[in-house]
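Consider the record:
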Amino acid sequence: MDSGNHSCQACGAPSSPLTKLSLGKDFFGRPYDRLSPSSDQNPRWYCASCSLHKHFQRDFRDILSEFDKLRCGLSSELSKAGEFQRASLRLHEIMMILNVPQQTSPFLNNRDVTVLMERLNTLTMPV
């Protein structure tokens, strides 16, 4: 796909340049490859704002996944004090951006982030 001739696939805005997310690291530093040929034959292209929100969504999902592991008594990155604190701060950052007037996310809603923040606050922070 020639990203220069298309609109953002999240918000639909005609925008240039568009980017796609593929290789990288998740919130906890683990490698991921969402767009490998075997797993994704249809990459999505996003404007700068939607790309930012897509990163927020990925971080939110990573933190939620680790929270669920921790809650079930499994090994979790959130059992490390530094990672727990970093995850809490990241959720606050995400919420601050989501609360900006006239700013909507095609990937996340405030309520989901608020609920996860509240659930994290019910845990005792690891030392």
